[in-house]
Write a structure and sequence with these properties.
This protein is α+β, with helices and mostly antiparallel strands and 136 residues long. It has 4 helices and 5 strands. The model has no long low-confidence stretch (mean pLDDT 93).
Length: 136
């Protein structure tokens, strides 16, 4: 089994807010991140796939094709967007780094030919990250 990782970057705005809570509870739990005007981050995405090497091509997956999939499924959707307001999966989900990793997994799972999605890692720059390895 071979593991390959491809990296991509995007910038997005968001805020943390739970509609079921009062404004005071949102402020208490999320602090400055509860500001409904939002704030932005630069993110780094690492997607790891695994599989067997094809004896003819020498690939597990064509890395150019993987790059194109990441661009289409994630970067074009998330880059320079306000996640709460413009990305459907965050209309009712708080766009934490952890939830972003889960959402990206769901966007990519089953869409990478000849390889199995192994890990999604999202870095909220400069140094916070969340790993996701699929449904528990």
């Amino acid at each position: 089994m071979i593991y390959l990782t491809r990296k991509a970057e995007f910038s997005s705005a968001h805020y943390y807010w739970n509609e079921a809570w009062s404004p005071e509870e949102n402020d208490r739990v999320f602090g400055r991140c509860a500001n409904r005007n939002g704030h932005g981050h630069n993110y780094t995405l690492e997607v790891t796939v695994c599989g067997e090497v094809d004896p003819v091509t020498g690939f597990v997956v064509d890395l150019k094709e993987l790059k194109d999939i990441l661009e289409r499924e994630v970067v074009r959707v998330y880059d320079h967007r306000h996640l709460n307001l413009e990305v459907p999966e965050f209309a009712a989900t708080v766009p934490t780094t952890e939830n972003i990793a889960v959402a990206i997994w769901r966007r990519l799972d089953g869409r990478i030919p000849h390889a199995k999605l192994y890990r999604v890692r999202v870095y909220e720059m400069p140094d916070l990250f969340a790993d996701y390895y699929g449904e528990a």
